[in-house]
Amino acid sequence: MGTAGQPAKFLYVMHNSETPLSCFALFEGGPFLAADPNFDVLMAKLKGHFQNAKGHKVESRGTRYLYCDFLVKVGTVTMGSSARGISVEVEYCPCVVPSDCWNLMKEFMVSFLGPHAPELPSAFTAKPDGLYSPAEGADTMAQYLELFGKVRKQQVASGGSMR
User: Fold this and answer.
1) Tell me, what's the pLDDT at 90?
2) pLDDT tens track of the chain, all 163 residues?
3) CA–CA distances in Å: residue 94 to residues 28, 69, 70
4) Which three-class secondary structure state does DSSP give residue 2?
5) By C-alpha distance, which of 27, 28, 24 is closest to 36?
6) How would you classify the pairing of strands 70-79 and 23-27?
7) Please, which residues have CB within 8 angstroms of residue 126's CB and are 6 or more apart in sequence?
8) 106 alpha-carbon distance from chain centroid
């Protein structure tokens, strides 16, 4: 919620089943916070300072697969109660510098996604040190935030229904 003369800043509170004892708060294009699950309680107490975006809950639920050194998570992206897309998360576990192993990851993804395999995500290119830390959660949550933003825009562009 913005104050007079300031644009509204959106704070996204996110949860990840890979880190059940953490809660993540991200400002769009800004800082990131990892907290314990009681962060939701704190946000409820601060509801006078933040406006909750009702009906904008987006989530991805699915299955986790381990194939050799690759971790693959395939999920259904839902907004409210309706399915809006499919998410595919791929991690090459031995590597923490995505640009060093991107060609290998891309080749692996092309094997099952074909021409729909993505280019190097902006979350990787924006990091000066190139290090990626899935355990920390910030990079993964930033990518999900980007994906969910696309889902929301698709919802608005289609007038509330999938085409």
Assistant:
1) 92
2) 455 666 767 888 888 888 888 889 888 777 888 888 889 888 888 887 777 776 678 899 999 999 999 999 999 999 888 899 999 999 999 987 777 888 999 999 999 999 999 888 777 776 666 666 655 677 788 888 888 888 888 877 776 544 3
3) 29, 7, 9
4) coil
5) 24
6) unpaired
7) none
8) 19
If you write DSSP's letter for every residue of 34-103 in order, what string do you get?
EE-TTHHHHHHHTTTTS---TT--EEEEEEEEEETTEEEEEEEEEETTEEEEEEEEEEETT-S-HHHHHH
CA 132, 135, 138, 144 torsion-angle sign: positive
Residues in the chain: 163
Residues 82-117 pLDDT 10s: 899 999 999 999 987 777 888 999 999 999 999 999
Q: CA 130, CA 133: separation in Å to the nearest integer?
A: 10
CA-CA distance, 73 to 63, in Å (whole number)?
Answer: 6
